[in-house]
Amino acid sequence: MADSMREIRRRIRSVETTEHITNAMRLVSAAKFRRAKAHYDQAADRLSGVMKIVEQVIRESRLTAQTGTEASSENVSVPPHQTIVILITSNRGLCGSYNTGILRLFEELLGKHSDKVADGEASKPQQLSVYAIGSRGLDYLRHQNIPVLGSCLKAPEQITPEEIRAICRQLLEACGQAGNVPDGEILLVSMQYVNTLHQEPAVLRLFPWEDPGERPAEPVLSGREREYVPSLRQVAESMIPRYLELLLYRGLAEAAVCEHAARRSAMENASENGKEMLSHLSLHYNRARQQAITDELIEIVSGSEALKKEG
What we know:
- This protein is α/β, with parallel strands linked by helices.
- It has 5 helices and 5 strands; from the N terminus they run αβαβαβαββα.
- The longest helix is centred in the last third of the chain and has 79 residues, at about 230-310.
- The two termini are about 30 Å apart.
C-alpha cells in the first residue's frame, strides 16, 4: 500500500509540473496570437487596396490582349508544365493538428498531380517542386524523397520582406519565366484562418490567377481613362513579381496567426486534461490513504484484543 501511495504521489507531481508548463505555454501562445492577429489585420487592410489595383491592371492587360489591341506573352493558352508548391508548416510541435492537416492536404495535392500526368492531361511532362517554409514540412519532404527547391526555417512572422523578395525571385526563376511572366503554376499550401478555434488547410493558387471563364468579362477601362507607360503589357508584367510578394507576405502572416491559435488551443486542452487527471489521481490517493489508515486501525485493534486475551 505504501508503494502504491508513493507511486501516486510521484504521478501527481509529474502531472502538476506538466500542467504548469502547458499553462505557461498557453499564456505565451495567447500573447503571440494577439500580436500576430493584429499584424495580420493591419497587413490585410493595407494590402487589399494595393492588390485590387494590381489585379485590375493585370485583368485589363489580359482583356486588351484578347481583343487584339496589344500582344502579351502572359495570355498564351499553354498548360503549365512546371508546378511549384510553397509548403508552410511550423518549426515546432505541440500545436494540435496544425501540421497534420497541412501535410494531409499536400498529399492529396500530390495525388491529383500524379493523376494528371498519368491521364495525359498535360501537353508537356509536368514537374513538381516544393519550397518548404518550416522544419516540419522539410522533414516530411526529405522522408518522402520529394524534391525540395529550397527551404526557409524561420518562423513565418520572422521572415523579412527582403527574404520574401528573394524567395519569390527564386520561384520565378524556377518557373522558367519569360521576362516577368512565369511559365508554370505556383501554389501555396498553408492553413487558412476561420476563427480563433477553427483553422482549415487550404490551397491558394498564386499564379496564374484566373482561368478563362472563371470571371465575367469586365470593361477594359471600367469607365475611366488610363494611360500606361511604356505599355500596359510591360506594366502588368512588371507587377507580377510584386504581386507574388504581396500574396506570400499575406499568406505568411495568416500562417503565423493560425499556428499560434492552434498552439494556444492545444495547450489549453492539455491544461484542462492535466487538471482532470490531477482530480482523478487525488481521488485515488485519498482512497489509498484512507485504506492505509483503516488497515492500521484494524491492526491496532487486533493487537489490543490479542493482548486482552493473553492477559
